[in-house]
From TrEMBL:
ATP binds at residues 10-18. The keyword Membrane does not apply. It is found in: Cytoplasm. It is an enzyme of class 2 (transferase). This is Cytidylate kinase. Belongs to the cytidylate kinase family. Type 1 subfamily. Residues 6-212 form the Cytidylate kinase domain. It catalyses: CMP + ATP = CDP + ADP; dCMP + ATP = dCDP + ADP. InterPro entries: Cytidylate_kin (IPR003136), Cytidylate_kinase_dom (IPR011994), P-loop_NTPase (IPR027417). It comes from Plantactinospora sonchi. PANTHER family: CYTIDYLATE KINASE, CYTIDYLATE KINASE/PANTOATE-BETA-ALANINE LIGASE. One of its GO terms (molecular function) is kinase activity.
Amino acid sequence: TGRCVVAVDGPSGSGKSTVSRRLADALGARYLDTGAMYRAVTWAVLRSGVDLDNAESVTKVAGEVDLKIGVDPAAPSVTADGIAVDRDIRGPEVTAAVSAVSAVPAVREILVALQRQIIEAAGRIVVEGRDIGSVVAPDADLKVYLTASAEARAQRRSTENAADLAATAADLARRDRLDSTRAADPLRQAPDAVVLDTTELGIDEVVSRLRELLTGRR
Ligand code: C5P
């Protein structure tokens, strides 16, 4: 049980969170949801009332907020300035603003540094996000890129959030576009990532496929 870092990237609704948590659990590893970190900073930005378009003010909030990230795959948690924000960061206000906040390069620098510290301290960890295999942990033991059809992703998210399907599909399309076209560390498939399309594959199949890949590699 030495060091083992698994990077899981992909767009929203591709199954990253479920797959990453299950895999971490199966490996007896920790789990880091980097999207929750961008969401928690966004929560702090909204709370502070600074202008979302003011990169300098947004960066200041990102640098000052005290984030605590729990990395237990059975109960991941996030606090910002001592407040449990697990529920609020999934709400529509944060979801609408997070792509703008995560596009600020200086915000990314702050969070990537924190993510690397958490990974280093954990040793064995499954990390999910958009830029994990490409930027945060380019030396990961396994890099996975999960995809699924736009329809399947919207369907999953709207079921999860009990939200309208058409509105969810529009929101996903908007975030995918912003996340993959931004200048700083866009959503990108690392050249050495294993690509899995989860449109037809069940969670169990994906997790066991990844476990096989890990065994093959060690
Ligand atoms: O994964 P989740 O949908 O919670 O991520 C929320 C947002 O955080 C994404 O839409 C993206 O803008 C940003 N993000 C990012 N880099 C990551 C993880 C998330 O830019 N590694």
